[in-house]
């Protein structure tokens, strides 16, 4: 079923355009997007771990940085979906791609738990040492995003 | 040039990278992580120069915070980039896009240094704001050119 869906996606006009004409451009913009996500989220993660910008409040730092995380994620997701449509069957059979998708789900769960759980009492640790839950979320985020970059690059090598 | 790339390909380091299956994707992953951190650090400085964010810090303070990160990442990018060239010299050194990429990097660094000077003196003008925008476009072009090396 999914196999057929992938074959159909790759055979659509959009899929053909990506795979035959625009793949390098779409991939290049994907790299700009993922660079924006990783670079910006790393600033917040390092603050949550208490490793950088300790004198700045977490809410202030997040306000400077996180809008760029979302813009970049939008760009990376859009170009990622286009790349998938262009070569859907290849990606579907690709182990690093599958691992990368699992890691993306985990990074989403990590963020949701932090945002809707730990972050609600941010006022208690906004300017000081972050709560254990916040430090854990920062560490997980850095590890998972690193894994997403590594598996993403690995897709092209199998 | 051919003799040079042939020699480079035959070196022990080049052979070691070529024959280790995870070496090239591994080095490229580190390269991507460094360019990500450089790109956003440069963007934060540019945003402060443009007056869009970091209002609680001066442009000089934001430069002192993020530019050392930019230079550290640039060093790591040159190192990992050099390893990738040693591994596959023919892929890069005969490639016009690679030289375009080097040009973008040099121009981005020059503009960053000029804007840094103005940030530290507190004399940011319209020209510096324009340079901050252009430097970010140059970093983006650097990323695109880097990916395009594989396709040219």
Could you describe the 3D structure shown?
The complex is a heterodimer of chains A (158) and B (152). Chain A is mainly alpha-helical and 158 residues long. Chain A is 79% helix and 0% strand. Chain A contains six helices and no strands. Chain A has helices at residues 2-11, 13-48, 58-86, 88-92, 95-116, 132-154. Chain B starts with a helix and ends with a helix. Helix content of chain B is 84%, strand content 0%. The radius of gyration of chain B is 18 Å and the shape is elongated. The interface between A and B is medium-sized, with 29 and 30 residues.
Strand count, sense and barrel status of the largest sheet of chain A are: none
The termini of chain B sit apart by 18 Å
**Mean pLDDT metric of chain A:** 96
Taking pLDDT < 50 over at least 5 consecutive residues as the criterion, the unreliable ranges of chain A are none
Oligomer: heterodimer
* Rg of chain B: 18 Å
As a percent range, the share of strand residues of chain B is under 5%
Element order, helices and strands of chain A? HHHHHH
Count up the helices of chain A.
6
What best-fitting shape of chain A do the alpha-carbon axes yield? elongated
Helices and strands of chain B, in order, run as HHHHHHH
Arithmetic mean pLDDT of chain B? 96
Helix % of chain A is over 70%
* Helical coverage of chain B, percent range: over 70%
* Structural class by SSE content of chain B: mainly alpha
From the spread of the alpha carbons, the general shape of chain B counts as: elongated
**What count of structural domains of chain B?**
1
Please report the total strand number of chain A as a whole number.
0
